[in-house]
Specification:
The protein is of the alpha+beta class. The protein has 15 helices and twelve strands. A four-stranded mixed beta sheet has the order 5-6-7-8, with helices on both faces.
């Protein structure tokens, strides 16, 4: 069929040679529309024209193969299959040629000659061209609106920052008191918080010097963790963001197609969005891999990944946020609660204290917090906040012990409550203890 007698041993007839051989017949029988034939032939005029033309001819042939059950050969116009069928010399390394074909196919899809549906390539249809035109118009519009792309970028960065900080889990001290972490992704400084604040800023809006100066100016005792995201991959990220947003807007605008060509065009647009999303994810992860973490005072944690640096930084910041935590840190407070409820003369012995209950550090702060009287919930709130951060059981144990010892009085609706297991605590009370009333009792010094 073809003159290949003068070729070297190892030459094979490529699959696209069949298209070249029968193209005229396909046009005459209207299997191949004249418009498509001319479009494929015109590709020869550009750079790498011969390969571009061959690839599109082969894409046409493969997509004409039947796909009905029983006759479907399973051949699809993917980059790998097309490269396999276009190889002419099986003795030469195929890697460079495969890469070349993959790049050509991506270029043909990018300029609208082909459309990509999943991993497959197909010749652009009339309706597909309309979807492609709508997509390009939206990309152009987004590119002309940098503020809109910037808003999308910030949203993606915030999501990635929250994902990075979501792995930080802290149980403080022997009491394993849970601590929370807050992500602050704004240029303005964060407000005072009862959690460790991770202040994330990026080079799109500020400089590393500004971040470092802010960390230094707050001093070494400040618990805020500063994260700086350097500006990398900016052009590719902007392109991926525009492509993803444009594809989504076309999908939303076009709705559900009512014909096979429309369904194919929609599938191609979904593939385009999927590819853009994959590019965004990879670019964002690469950018965040270069993040720098600073503690108060400006000390940088030079660790191999952001997660490890954040865990180390937040662990140190918790100690700064709650400098008085160690005074009440113990895993034995549930035993103190039980002994206080039972009226034991030395309820604090499980935490290593044998003096009068009112002399324990927690008890002293409990009495100071209640002042002339206040709700138990208010006392708790005061002593769970910085600089204390004390476990609930430590506060409850002191309240019960002080009440049992007659140091404080408890009233509910003006009536005194007798010493006993009246207080609601985080520890499970013994079965013999009656259900306590609301925690809103009035508590005050006698």
């Amino acid at each position: 069929m073809l003159d290949c007698a003068d070729k070297n041993l190892g030459y094979v007839i490529p699959g696209d040679a069949l298209y070249t051989r029968i193209a005229d017949k396909l046009v005459n029988t209207r299997v191949l529309l004249n418009e498509l034939f001319n479009r494929i032939e015109k590709l020869k005029e550009g750079p790498q024209g011969n390969l571009r033309c061959r690839a599109c001819g082969l894409v046409f042939l493969i997509n004409k193969l039947p796909r009905e059950a029983g006759v479907d050969l399973g051949l699809r116009a993917t980059a790998e299959v097309l490269a396999d069928l276009m190889i002419e010399d099986i003795t030469a390394p195929s890697g460079p040629f495969r890469n070349q074909i993959a790049e050509i196919l991506e270029g043909l899809a990018a300029d609208g000659t082909l459309m990509k549906v999943g991993d497959e390539y197909r010749l652009q249809t009339t309706e597909g061209a309309e979807w492609d035109r709508a997509f390009r118009e939206r990309v152009t519009g987004l590119t002309a609106q940098p503020d809109e792309i910037e808003a999308i970028r910030r949203r993606r960065f915030l999501e990635e920052a929250q994902n990075s900080t979501s792995t930080v889990r802290m149980k403080h001290g022997a009491s394993k008191t849970p601590r929370s972490v807050t992500t602050h992704y704004e240029d303005a400084p964060p407000l005072v918080s009862e959690s460790v604040v991770i202040w994330v800023r990026d080079e799109w809006g500020t400089s590393e010097k500004e971040v470092l100066n802010a960390a230094r100016s707050r001093g070494v005792d400040d618990p805020t963790v500063h994260v700086f995201i350097p500006k990398k991959e900016a052009d590719s990220l902007r392109r991926y963001l525009a492509d993803s947003e444009a594809a989504q807007r076309v999908l939303d605008n076009k709705g559900a197609p009512s014909n096979p060509e429309g369904e194919e065009a929609r599938a191609s647009m979904i593939s385009r969005k999927t590819a853009a999303e994959a590019g965004i994810q990879e670019a964002v992860k690469e950018i965040f891999r270069g993040a720098k973490v600073f503690q108060g005072g400006g000390h940088e944690l030079a660790l191999s990944n952001l997660s490890d640096a954040l865990n180390q930084a937040t662990t140190a910041s918790v100690e700064k946020l709650y400098p008085r935590f160690t005074e009440a840190d113990s895993s034995e407070w549930s035993r103190v609660i039980q002994r206080a409820r039972e009226g034991n003369d030395n309820p604090f012995s499980p935490v290593g204290f044998s003096g009068p209950v009112q002399d324990h550090a927690v008890s002293r702060e409990v009495m100071r917090a209640m002042g002339q009287g206040g709700a138990g919930s208010k006392i708790r709130k005061t002593l769970e906040a910085p600089p204390f951060g004390w476990p609930k059981d430590a506060i409850d144990a002191s309240l019960i012990a002080l009440h049992r010892a007659g140091v404080v009085r408890v009233t509910q609706k003006g009536a005194n409550i007798a010493p006993g297991p009246w207080i609601k605590t985080t520890s499970r009370p013994p079965n013999s203890v009656p259900k306590p009333p609301s925690y809103r009792q009035k508590i005050g010094l006698r």
